[in-house]
Design goal:
Elements (H helix, E strand, L loop, with lengths): L3 E2 L9 H6 L10 H18 L4 E6 L2 H12 L5 E3 L5 H12 L3 E3 L11 H8 L7 E5 L1 E2 L4 E2 L3 H10 L3 E5 L11 H4 L3 E5 L10 E6 L1 H8 L10 H8 L10 H17 L1 H21 L15 E5 L6 H12 L1 E2 L1 E2 L8 E5 L6 H17 L6 H11 L6
Parallel strand pairs: 1-12, 3-4, 3-5, 5-8, 8-9
Antiparallel strand pairs: 2-10, 6-7, 9-10, 11-14, 13-14
The protein binds pyridoxal-5'-phosphate.
Length: 382
Amino acid sequence: MRKLIMIPGPTNVPDRVVSAMLAPMINHRGEEFHELYRRIRANCQKVFQTSNEIVVISGSGTAGVDAAVGAIFSEGDSVVVPSFGEFSARLGDSASYTGASVMRPTAELGDAPSLDEVEKELRSTEKVKALCVVFNETSTGVTWRKLKELGELAKRCGALFVVDAISVMGGEDVPVDKLGADICIAGTQKCLAAPPGLVIVSFSPAAKQAVQGKKPRNQYFDMPKYFQFAEHDETPSTPAIPLFFALDEALKMVLEEGIQNRFERHELCAGAFYKAFESLGLKPFARHEYRSNTVIGINYPMGIDDRKFRAMVDERFGVVIAGGFGKLKGSMFRVGNMGEIDEKMITVTVSAIAESLSSLGVSCDLSKALSQVWKSFSSVHP
Ligand SMILES: Cc1ncc(COP(=O)(O)O)c(C=O)c1O
């Protein structure tokens, strides 16, 4: 049985995208690859809403983060990386591997730091090289919807603005140029609904300038080399060609739908999930205004064993959901609302969760939850 993969990435990959990977191998130094890479980068620019340089790296999201921060930071640089969960902490860790001194204004899990705290850190030392933020903190289901203000703050302080949009690009509006994001990183295995294994990174002219003056830390993430090779529509080392075929198809699907329609669909589906879960008496983990449209984080009711519950959802209903991360392990579950998400997937997922909770002794009214899902989609029913 094909399972419904409802974790916050990798997500379900459409058959069209999977089939694209079956194409025969091509020469990565030949015209077929040149055309493919040119089209992928042009389509990424449309999804990122940017005219900035795009590179696609064969590696997971972390590879993109390491490539980006490794390219712009040196020993002794000061950087600000607000911390409000596992992935924002990891972004700070990636920065500190470069020898930079990392300031981390911190917020309670489920919330995000205040702009005042971020500004205080940015102004605490003479020259901060960059402000690096995670837009969608996948570990807590928090979307820090202050990117515009954060970008303006970075500019006022003369700092580069780096955005990890790994778990949100394609699912919520991230207009890179409008936001003034100098570097933006997107995963392929999340809202773009392609398989894992590639990461897309955009560089503004200012970011490229910051990169050019620096000795690369290693060969694989030598960004100036990426820019040079991109001039001829190539990558410095052998790209993961089947994944490029898949990403090409996935991007075509995103653009066929239209990015605005895609953002609206994610929002609609997230609303249906939250309403259904709340009608079951469950509480979202994130502060209301920052509730993510792509990662639905829900607190467990008292007494529910995370492993037992998720095993039941998986084995009885074929639906795979995620648990909590780090300190949140055992206290919450997370549902990915990404990529191909639709009413049918939500209905199956909510049913599997409600029935499993009922079996474990929590009183749950599934019909009430499903009527919330139905109502959420009433405007789009024929
Ligand atoms: C916001 C964010 N940043 C970074 C990463 C790391 O990506 P990967 O696991 O693909 O290396 C993830 C993964 O879920 C993420 O959600």
